[in-house]
Each structure stands twice: as structure tokens, then as C-alpha cells.
Design goal:
mainly alpha
């Protein structure tokens, strides 16, 4: 057995080690010396790895391989029944940035019941969306306004803002939504668009006050 084969076996075993630091080092080693034989194991580990920083290293290792070998496997993974598998595959696709993956970013993923999956889908979508399809994406994303806790809401606001001015019509429509959470989130997002330095906490609290007073930002 060659030294390269021995190193490969050692790295693959390291990805399964009970120690998170060993798994981290193994993922680093795999990314440093990319080999197509690692791809299936890296994707498999992404779906079950409990430590955030190890998952990030696994994602980095995947981005070090040729997209032609990783993207087809990741596209299969976004249809997994496991939420973490879907989330990590979407996250990795956003890092690779291959727009051939765009058709896999479905409305079902953008509105996934799992917040982490949805957030990963939003981030991937704004990276991969083809020119001219941003308004349609903004319309879908705007249906998620008011969803979840602050972290989820901030992720959605950032995704919408990343689309630029094309998302303003969808945002303005959401400012008139009957649901006060939707209105507040839309107003906060619009204020962040105008003043990125305002901070989301400030924007959302101010937006809540505006909604409570029954006014939109356009009305002062």
C-alpha cells in the first residue's frame, strides 16, 4: 500500500473519530490535499457532524474539490429527508457559487419548515440567482417575512438586501400585510436597506413602534 493510500485511509478514519479536534484536523488534511475519493465521506459527515466549526471545515474541504465532482452530489443531498443534510448541502453550494445549481433552489427549500434549511437556501439563492430572476426570488423571499426569531429574521433581511432595489416592490407590499409581525419585519428591512449601519435590533424595535402606531415608513 502506497503512502498516499495510507494517508487517505487515515484521513477517512479521522473524519469518524470521536474527538472533534481530530475530525477538524482530518477535514483540514482532506481539503489541503483534495482527492475525489473523499467527497462522499465529506458529504456524509456534513449531514451528521454536531460541531459547527468542524462542519465549516468540511464545507471548506468540499470547496477545494472540482465543482464538476462535488455539485452533482450536493444537488442530490438537498433532497435529503435529513434537515442538516439539506442545510449543509445548500451552505456548501453557496460557497462553491456554481450557478448550474440554481434550478435546485426550489420554492420548497426557500420555504422549508426547518429554519436552518430555509436560511441556507436564502443565502444560496442570492448567490446563485441568474440575472433577471431576482424579482421573482424577492417575491418568494418576501413570503417569509415575519418568520422565526431574530436570527432567522436577520438572515432573511440580509438576503433581501443583497438582491438590491429589485426587492423593494415586494417589501412595500409586505408593509401593508395584515400580520403585524410581517409589517414590522418589512419595515425593519427597508430601514436597513436605507441605513445599513442602523443595526437590526434597532431597526426591528423601531419598526414595532411604527406598526403599533399604525403607520408605515412612507407615512412618517
Amino acid at each position: 500500500m502506497s503512502k498516499q493510500d495510507t494517508d487517505t485511509i487515515r484521513a477517512l478514519q479521522g473524519l469518524e473519530n470521536s474527538s472533534s479536534s481530530v475530525r477538524l484536523q482530518a477535514a483540514l488534511a482532506v481539503g489541503t490535499t483534495p482527492d475525489p475519493r473523499f467527497i462522499d465521506k465529506l458529504i456524509e459527515r456534513c449531514a451528521s457532524e454536531p460541531e459547527f466549526y468542524v462542519r465549516e471545515m468540511l464545507t471548506w474541504a468540499l470547496t477545494r474539490h472540482a465543482p464538476s465532482t462535488t455539485v452533482p452530489e450536493l444537488l442530490h443531498e438537498v433532497r435529503s429527508e435529513r434537515a442538516q443534510a439539506r442545510s449543509q448541502a445548500l451552505h456548501t453550494l453557496s460557497k462553491i457559487g456554481d450557478r448550474q445549481a440554481w434550478p435546485a433552489i426550489t420554492r420548497a427549500l426557500l420555504t422549508d419548515a426547518d429554519d436552518e434549511v430555509a436560511r441556507s437556501a436564502w443565502r444560496a439563492a442570492v448567490v446563485l440567482v441568474p440575472e433577471g430572476e431576482e424579482p421573482e426570488l424577492a417575491a418568494v423571499l418576501s413570503t417569509q417575512l415575519g418568520r422565526g426569531e431574530r436570527e432567522t429574521q436577520l438572515s432573511l433581511s440580509r438576503a433581501l438586501i443583497a438582491l438590491g432595489g429589485v426587492m423593494v416592490p415586494a417589501l412595500r407590499a409586505a408593509m401593508k400585510d395584515p400580520d403585524p409581525r410581517v409589517r414590522a419585519h418589512a419595515i425593519a428591512t427597508e430601514r436597513l436597506l436605507r441605513d445599513p449601519d442602523a443595526g437590526f435590533e434597532f431597526a426591528i424595535e423601531e419598526a414595532k413602534r411604527v406598526v403599533a402606531l399604525g403607520r408605515t415608513s412612507q407615512e412618517g
